[in-house]
């Protein structure tokens, strides 16, 4: 078997132990004689599995009891629209902090359902740093404040939860850094994450919402768009993504077996540090353009000193078993995504390859 070291930004690497367990259970899940994909979500086995996955996630993240945990579909992108539908009424405005590609998209998609106030933006800085907190023009009457703690494409990350004061709920798109470190969920009104970076397969969204906010959705809309309906139906208003939910549950168990989110945080910190040190210590051969205090632990961008070497770098890295280092097409260069499922050995292999490449291509 030849597994590569996988630095894909998403859909991304899954823990090997999770894949192996899913493989073992593929044909006969839980003594049922059928795969998990081939049975009713209303069956006893599936309901027990789904409840266990939620319980494990609640334990891992320390989710308070007054929060609902939903397992939904539509990707993070659908929820860019569904969040204002559910949290804002007619005539309301919402504050958006724009710090990269995904928060810009969230703000633009929300515009169909709420008056968007861009409270802060680092676009003029090329998204190379975060908008300084003291520059945020927050509206105390906003329906909510939305931000993106980790910008997957631009490679910037907030390393602390911003204090937005008052009673305006904080909403966070945690698609690419959920479960990468402990998080004080009680600071948020709503957290959401597409699964395909740090949780499981694509097609699943984990959404955590303070229960009082479920009552906000005043406007007319079909039940399928209403978070309160999903919460009341335990995320089984219609057929959920059963496979995604199952694999997410396996990932949660794997995270618990690793020692939980504190252990993952330390591992992720060391992985990122190793790669940034290799870049910064390369004498300018490799460069990361992000202001150091805003560098992402999850998505590390870098360029080579001479763009003419990019093709050779990608070809040789792939031949060396290092997959998906090509940067996002909008930015060029390289990007290594270092999610939970990427082990320290993968980063060590990458750093060794980068040193060797620099020597050979002087
Ligand atoms: C990948 C990503 C998205 C888009 O997710 P989809 O599931 O494709 O809609 C949104 N936000 C962030 C931060 C992401 O990393």
From TrEMBL:
Asked if the Swiss-Prot or TrEMBL record annotates the protein with the keyword Amino-acid biosynthesis, the reply is: yes
- Keyword terms of this UniProt record: Amino-acid biosynthesis, Aminotransferase, Cytoplasm, Pyridoxal phosphate, Pyridoxine biosynthesis, Serine biosynthesis, Transferase
In terms of Pfam families, this protein maps to: Aminotran_5
In terms of InterPro entries, this protein maps to: Aminotrans_V_dom (IPR000192), Pser_aminoTfrase (IPR022278), PyrdxlP-dep_Trfase (IPR015424), PyrdxlP-dep_Trfase_major (IPR015421), PyrdxlP-dep_Trfase_small (IPR015422)
**Location of this chain's protein in the cell:** Cytoplasm
Query: What EC number(s) are associated with this protein in UniProt?
Result: 2.6.1.52
Q: From which domain of life does this come?
A: Bacteria
Instruction: Provide the reaction this enzyme catalyses.
Output: O-phospho-L-serine + 2-oxoglutarate = 3-phosphooxypyruvate + L-glutamate; 4-(phosphooxy)-L-threonine + 2-oxoglutarate = (R)-3-hydroxy-2-oxo-4-phosphooxybutanoate + L-glutamate
Known cofactor(s): pyridoxal 5'-phosphate
Q: Name the GO cellular-component terms.
A: cytoplasm
Q: How is the cofactor bound?
A: Binds 1 pyridoxal phosphate per subunit.
Residues that the record marks as modified (N6-(pyridoxal phosphate)lysine) are 197
| Coiled-coil parts of chain | none
Q: Which residues form the Aminotransferase class V domain?
A: 4-350
Entry's Gene Ontology molecular function annotations: O-phospho-L-serine:2-oxoglutarate aminotransferase activity; pyridoxal phosphate binding
Instruction: Provide the residue positions that the database annotates as binding pyridoxal 5'-phosphate.
Output: 76-77, 102, 152, 173, 196, 238-239
One record GO biological process: pyridoxine biosynthetic process
Residue positions annotated to bind L-glutamate are 42
* Pathway(s) of this molecule: Amino-acid biosynthesis; L-serine biosynthesis; L-serine from 3-phospho-D-glycerate: step 2/3; Cofactor biosynthesis; pyridoxine 5'-phosphate biosynthesis; pyridoxine 5'-phosphate from D-erythrose 4-phosphate: step 3/5
What NCBIfam families does UniProt report for this protein, alphabetically? PRK05355.1 (NF003764), serC_1 (TIGR01364)
In terms of PANTHER family, this protein maps to: PHOSPHOSERINE AMINOTRANSFERASE
Q: How does it assemble?
A: Homodimer.
Biological role: Catalyzes the reversible conversion of 3-phosphohydroxypyruvate to phosphoserine and of 3-hydroxy-2-oxo-4-phosphonooxybutanoate to phosphohydroxythreonine.
Question: Into which family does the record put it?
Answer: Belongs to the class-V pyridoxal-phosphate-dependent aminotransferase family. SerC subfamily.
Protein name according to UniProt:
Phosphoserine aminotransferase
Per the UniProt entry, what species is this protein from, by scientific name?
Answer: Rhodanobacter denitrificans
């Amino acid at each position: 078997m030849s597994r590569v070291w996988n630095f894909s930004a998403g859909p991304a690497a899954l823990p090997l132990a999770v894949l192996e367990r899913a493989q073992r259970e593929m044909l006969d899940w839980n003594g049922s004689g059928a795969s998990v994909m081939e049975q009713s979500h209303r069956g006893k086995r599936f309901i027990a599995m789904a409840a266990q996955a939620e319980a494990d996630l609640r334990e891992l993240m320390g989710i308070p009891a007054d929060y609902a945990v939903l397992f939904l579909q539509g990707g993070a992108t659908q929820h860019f629209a569904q969040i204002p539908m559910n949290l804002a009424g007619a005539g309301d405005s919402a504050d958006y902090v724009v710090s990269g590609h995904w928060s810009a998209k969230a703000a633009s998609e929300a515009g169909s359902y709420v008056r968007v106030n861009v409270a802060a933006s680092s676009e003029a800085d090329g998204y190379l740093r975060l908008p300084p907190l003291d520059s945020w023009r927050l509206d105390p009457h906003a329906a909510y404040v939305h931000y993106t703690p980790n910008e997957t494409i631009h490679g910037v990350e907030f390393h602390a939860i911003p204090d937005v004061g008052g009673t305006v709920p904080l909403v966070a798109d945690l698609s690419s850094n959920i479960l990468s470190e402990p998080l004080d969920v009680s600071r948020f009104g709503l957290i959401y994450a597409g699964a395909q970076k740090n949780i499981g397969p694509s097609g699943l969204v984990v959404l955590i919402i303070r229960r009082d906010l479920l009552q906000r959705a005043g406007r007319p809309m079909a039940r399928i768009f209403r978070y309160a309906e999903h919460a009341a139906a335990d995320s089984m208003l219609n057929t959920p993504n059963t496979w995604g939910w199952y694999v997410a549950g396996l990932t949660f168990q794997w995270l618990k077996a690793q020692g939980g989110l504190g252990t993952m945080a330390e591992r992720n910190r060391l992985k990122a540090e190793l790669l940034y040190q290799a870049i910064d210590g390369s004498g300018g051969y490799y460069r990361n353009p992000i202001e150091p205090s805003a560098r992402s632990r999850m998505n590390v961008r870098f360029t080579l000193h001479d763009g003419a070497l990019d093709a050779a770098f990608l070809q040789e890295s792939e031949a060396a078993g290092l997959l998906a280092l090509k940067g996002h097409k909008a930015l060029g260069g390289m990007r290594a995504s270092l999610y939970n499922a990427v082990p320290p050995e993968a980063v060590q292999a990458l750093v060794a390859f980068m040193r060797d490449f620099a020597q050979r291509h002087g």
